[in-house]
Amino acid sequence: MTKYLTLDTERCTGCRICESTCAITTEGVLNRAKSRIHIYRKDVLILNQLFCDQCDEHLCIDVCPTGAISLKNCQVRIDRSLCDGCGKCARACNKIFLTPEEHFALMCIQCGACVKTCPENALEIKEKECLK
Amino acid sequence: MARFHRLLRIDLQAQSSTIEEIPAHFEKMFLGGKGLATAYFVNEVPPGIDPLGPENKFIVATGPLNGTIAPASSRFEIVTKSPLTGIYLDCNSGGHFGQDLKAAGFDLLILEKSSDKPVLLYIDNDNVSFIDASLIWGKKVYETEKLVRELIEAPEIRVLSIGPAGENLVRFASLSNDFSRNAARGGSGAVFGSKKVKALAVRGSCDIPVADLKALRKSSEKAKTVIFNNPWVEGQRKYGTVRSVGIVNELGFLPVNNFTDGVVPSVESINEISYEKSIGKILSCGECPVACSKGYSRHGVQMEGPEFETVGLFGPNLGVMDPDEIARFNLSCNQYGMDTITAGSMLGALLDTEIFTEKNGRKVDIIEDLLKKTATRTGVGNLLAEGPVQVGEHFKIMDKMPQIKGLGFPAYDPRVSYGTSLAYMTADRGACHLRSWPVGREFGGMWAEDDIEGRVEFVKNQQDEKAAEESLIVCQFVYGIGLLDEILAELLSVSTGENWTLADMKTAGERCWTLSRLFSCREGISRKDDYLPEKFSNEGIRKGPLKGKLMSRKIQDIMLDKYYSLRGWDENGVPGEELIKRLGLEEWVHD
Q1: pLDDT tens across B80-89, in order?
Q2: What is the DSSP secondary structure assignment for residue A27, as one 8-state letter?
Q3: What is the domain-level CATH number for residue A86?
Q4: pLDDT digits over A58-99, tens only?
Q5: Which of these, A130, B228, B251, B426, is most buried using a 10 Å CB contact count?
Q6: Which domain does A116 fall in, by range?
Q7: In the beta sheet, which residues pair with residue B76?
């Protein structure tokens, strides 16, 4: 099975606690720019929540020139040792992000830390049939 | 830690910027945020300058808790000289701007001089860009924010901008971020306009240095428990500030028909239940688990709000009980970039005269028209744009113009209590309900009916504590006004690695309060400016449970005497030498 993160847009208030939680959990620093989930303000009452949802398209895998992005055990993953931060994946898909220094790409790893800290219970890790 | 110790100084005329180090002893004395901004402001702005001239400075401050994971820590502060009151002004706004400015690596930002042409400032960490804003100049707030994002091609940036009112130097023009979150009072938007700054966009991607992240995570969890144990928070989360409409009406101090009646027969059409039907989205400031902001969406009107103050002042105060009309006025102010509080209280006094009556058209259309004329300085709007004092003097209605030091009344009738009156009379920026809020405790029976001293002491202490809270910077709606729980000292200490107690924090707040008064005294403020308008000392509230209640001049004098004495100010309301020495503020006193 493939695990993926989902977000209930009705519940999400845009507090971005998920962003700080993600950066601390995955990168060990308090820096929302290093989060793998981002909440942008799009319009007066509209938020834009972006994170990798393990889609079936795999554009990121297709465009990655170094083979850093691949399918491993049913999950799309980035091998940081192979990523040179070229940014092609982030340009192909707005759910992947580059670190501020553009050293490497960042993608949700379904660790579930943000699910636990979301005050609105808007986030959830779900499972679907294994990606191929 | 939790500080960058860095100040970004921007010269708008030369289009250049420098980064300075903030001395550690300043941080120790003033904590951060409001305190630190006030310390720089009072030091650098000479007496008598034109608030709308290039000599005025515009300071944006973050606090040590901004950007961290301390709950409700994304608010930011503005300190400048007010074009409305001519004295010290500070504004505090929610949204996400503060959190992101901090992430750009700055504790303070000082804008100096003026640009010759419209400019969009873009701070991307250490890089400052001066972008031609000619094409955005003239746009309303919502469109401005969207255009700025398009122009910079960065969806994640946060934008602080003005609308036409700020450009036209309306003296109560506001600054907006996240579309409808405003730093509204006292005309900070006009200062932006005078400097030809249409917008300030920020993108921050620095690591926020925290002394002990593990401890901060633990303290933040503890803080959440403190927050949700506050009985007030539940209603705030469900309905936002608008739920106060019913309570304030029931107790009899709602502004009705220019602060005359105190009550309306029913608030059913404008209370939280009525507005609940229009909630299109619930929104939150950064790192806030409460999410008190209710997004109104109805008949094409979209915004966060309306908040209690706007409902009270554009509603019953103007004799309007239609929730959608109130929302429409709110949207107009948001879009033009104007303070709803000063607009609502000033229009209340104006509509209470024979100048504008129903024979000029439907009242709601007159109001809408006056708001537009004010923002564009058209016809009578050119006078209204000058604010309550000029309007009051022109129409000879100063006695009933609800203002102190030029700042319009918030939506609570101060005659309700000794404490509320004193809080308005002595608030640093003019009539303001956000510096001390004793009325809940007064109704709760905290003091005997004749215990003026207890109330004065409470107001003084809460003002100092609130200044500290706005130096951290955390949200008062979430933590309560002041330093109510040890958790605030704990959050600050584990974040900074500095050893803070609530007592030290309060002293930092007292320094801030003293400096702002010194600044305003330099501008001519003294005891004479600390009184309620005549109407409030001569006429009682006309209806409701508080019928007949007024605040006599004699009582005001008794309160001021006690207040000044407690503060260490002389009988004229000027901070004394002994106080200045005790607080170590000698270097801020210029002869």
Answers
A1: 999 999 999 9
A2: I
A3: 3.30.70.20
A4: 999 999 999 999 999 999 999 999 999 999 999 999 999 999
A5: B426
A6: 2-128
A7: B93
pLDDT of residue B591: 59
How many C-beta atoms lie closer than 10 Å to residue B590's C-beta? 10
Show residues of chain A in contact with B288, CB under 8 Å: 15
Query: Rounded to the nearest 10 degrees, what angle do helices B553-567 and B452-472 cross at?
Result: 60
DSSP state of B155: T
> Please, are residues A35 and A23 in contact by the beta-carbon 8 Å criterion?
yes
pLDDT at B356: 78
What gap in Å lies between CA A52 and CA A94, rounded to an integer? 9
Residues of chain A with C-beta less than 8 angstroms from the C-beta of B494: none
Structure tokens at B538: 């001569």
CA of A34: which chain B residue's CA is closest?
B205
Residue B121 lies in a domain: yes
**B96–A42 C-beta distance less than 8 A:** no
> Which of A41, A49, A97 best tests the B interface by mutation, with the highest count of B CBs <10 A?
A41
- d(CA A121, CA A7) in angstroms, rounded, equals 9
* CATH number of the domain within which B73 lies: 3.60.9.10
pLDDT digit string, tens, across residues B130-164: 999 999 999 999 999 999 999 999 989 999 999 99
Q: For residue B431, which of B341, B352, B519 has the smallest C-alpha distance?
A: B341
- Which of B103, B146, B285 has its CB closest to that of A33? B103
> In the block, which residue shows the tokens 């303001």?
B432
- pLDDT 10s digits, B89-120: 999 999 999 999 999 999 999 999 999 999 99
**Residue written as token pair 């804003």:** B133
A11-57 pLDDT, tens per residue? 999 999 999 999 999 999 999 999 999 999 999 999 999 999 999 99
CB contact under 8 A, B68 and A33: no
Residue B79 bridge partners (DSSP) = B59, B90
Cβ atoms of B171 and B187 closer than 8 Å? yes
Residues B302 and B479: their CA atoms lie apart, in Å, by 28
Residue B391 to residue B451: CA distance in whole angstroms = 37
The boundaries of the domain holding residue B73 are 6-203
In DSSP terms, A85 is beta-bridged to: none
Q: What is the ipTM of this complex?
A: 0.95
B188: which 2 tokens?
Answer: 């900070």
Domains in chain B, number: 1
- Give the whole-angstrom CA distance, residue A71 versus residue B499: 49
**Residue in chain B nearest A46 by alpha carbon:** B281
Closest chain A residue to the Cα of B334, Cα to Cα = A44
